[in-house]
Design a protein that fits this description.
Elements: E1 2-6, H1 11-22, E2 26-33, H2 51-64, E3 68-72, H3 74-90, H4 97-116, E4 121-123, E5 128-133, E6 136-141, H5 150-153, H6 158-161, E7 164-165, H7 173-182, H8 204-212, E8 217-220, E9 226-230, E10 257-262, E11 267-271, E12 277-288, E13 296-302, E14 310-317, E15 320-330, E16 337-342, E17 345-355, H9 362-373
Parallel strand pairs: 1-2, 1-4, 2-3, 4-7, 8-11
Antiparallel strand pairs: 5-6, 8-9, 10-11, 12-15, 12-17, 13-14, 13-16, 14-15, 16-17
GO molecular function: ATP binding; tRNA binding; tRNA-uridine 2-sulfurtransferase activity
Organism: Acidipropionibacterium virtanenii
Function: Catalyzes the 2-thiolation of uridine at the wobble position (U34) of tRNA, leading to the formation of s(2)U34.
């Protein structure tokens, strides 16, 4: 099989490529250049797309003995990942750019070009397992629960999964590092990447301020009373506690959390932690990994990459999904992805557009905001 191995410059993608070579596949390594100014992704970046990473990927490919190329996807990455990321924050939502990159770049743009060039599949170092039976490709959680990445792959459809290979899904991370050391790969002890690649210093609020500017807004409690001021709603996400710097303490002295974000009025609503509890999720744009499920079924819902899955009843409603949770989740924000499971099988995903937080009276806070503006 002719395989295009996406090599980020980390240990996982390097070992994935090496395993494919050992299995007898015809492998070509490719590193994705996602910035027009890669030097801006300085040495020491905690993402996966620095110039240093491209050098690490090339050295790994040379050690494995496979051809290696760098593909410039910076223009499409900006259009498909960075600009939507900014737009989502502008709208007061909380996006996950890694899911978007997997959906639109690694397993769409790269796969399209690879198929056009005669490759049969794209391989990555993601930790997830694939099963192919009766012409259907099914994705399951990885063996290593601490490294399972099925959540960020839950946006892939059946056609994309049918052309994917994840050689590390049955392995523990410790085994992968040991294998890299045995192969003489210089990345064997390289730390994992964990920041947004286009915000290499990890300062997301600062980066967003450069994109969206700053404008003084108000913190309000659920009654509409002003309890502080901020430099822009895009600095905050639902569930956030730190960095609020409120001028007025809560009557009971307990910490306040971000409960809601209102972009039009530049208002951030704050309140007690119990008002963050969510029992129902409404979601749109579902993607079904292995075919559309029944109109109503029971499974598990996960709303963060390493979040705890919660038992839930899932119902397909008007082209979207309604998810009734058996146990409450906290701090869920519109824009996050809900990935749905049947045991360890990934059924699909959808984008959260609404939640039911009975304790939150946004209308009261907005009325207070309107009075303040008047």
């Amino acid at each position: 099989m002719r395989v295009l191995a996406a090599m980020s410059g980390g240990v996982d993608s390097a070992v994935a490529a090496a395993r494919l070579v050992a299995a007898g596949h015809d492998v070509t390594g490719v590193h994705l250049a996602l910035s027009r100014t890669p030097l801006a992704y300085r040495e020491g970046s905690r993402g996966c797309c620095s110039l240093e990473d491209s050098f690490d990927a090339r050295r790994a490919a040379d050690r494995i003995g496979i051809p290696f190329y760098v593909w410039d996807f910076s223009q499409r990455f900006a259009a498909e990942v960075i600009h939507p990321f900014v737009d989502e924050y502008r709208a007061g939502r909380t996006p996950n750019p890694c899911l978007r990159c997997n959906e639109r770049i690694k397993f769409a743009a790269v796969l399209e070009r690879g198929l056009d060039l005669g490759y049969d599949a794209v391989a990555t170092g993601h930790y997830a397992r694939l099963e192919r039976t009766d012409g259907v490709t099914r994705m399951r959680r990885a063996v290593d629960p601490g490294k399972d990445q099925s959540y960020v792959l839950g946006v892939l459809n059946q056609d994309q999964l049918s052309h994917c290979l994840f050689p590390l899904g049955d392995s523990l991370k410790t085994e992968v590092r040991a294998e890299a050391a045995d192969l003489g790969l210089s990345v064997a002890d390289k730390p994992d990447s964990y920041d947004i690649c286009f915000i290499p210093d990890g300062d997301t609020p600062g980066w967003l301020s450069d994109q969206l500017g700053e404008e003084t807004g108000q913190f309000r409690d659920e009654s509409g009373a002003v309890v502080g001021h901020h430099d822009g709603y895009h600095h905050f996400t639902i569930g956030q506690r730190r960095g609020l710097h409120l001028g007025t303490p809560a009557p009971d002295g307990k910490p306040r959390y971000v409960l809601d974000i209102q972009p039009v009025s530049n208002t951030v609503v704050v309140g007690p932690s119990e008002d963050l509890e969510v029992h129902r999720l409404e979601a749109i744009r579902p993607v079904w990994c292995s075919g559309t499920p029944d109109d109503a079924w029971r499974g598990k819902a996960q709303v963060r990459a390493h979040g705890t899955p919660v038992d839930a009843r899932v119902e397909l409603v008007d082209g979207g999904v309604r998810i009734d949770l058996d146990a409450a989740l906290s701090g869920v924000a519109p824009g996050q992805a809900a990935v749905l499971y049947d045991d360890n099988l990934v059924v699909g995903s959808a984008t959260i557009c609404g939640t039911d937080r009975a304790g939150l009276d946004v209308a009261a806070a907005l009325r207070g905001s309107e009075k303040g503006a008047a």
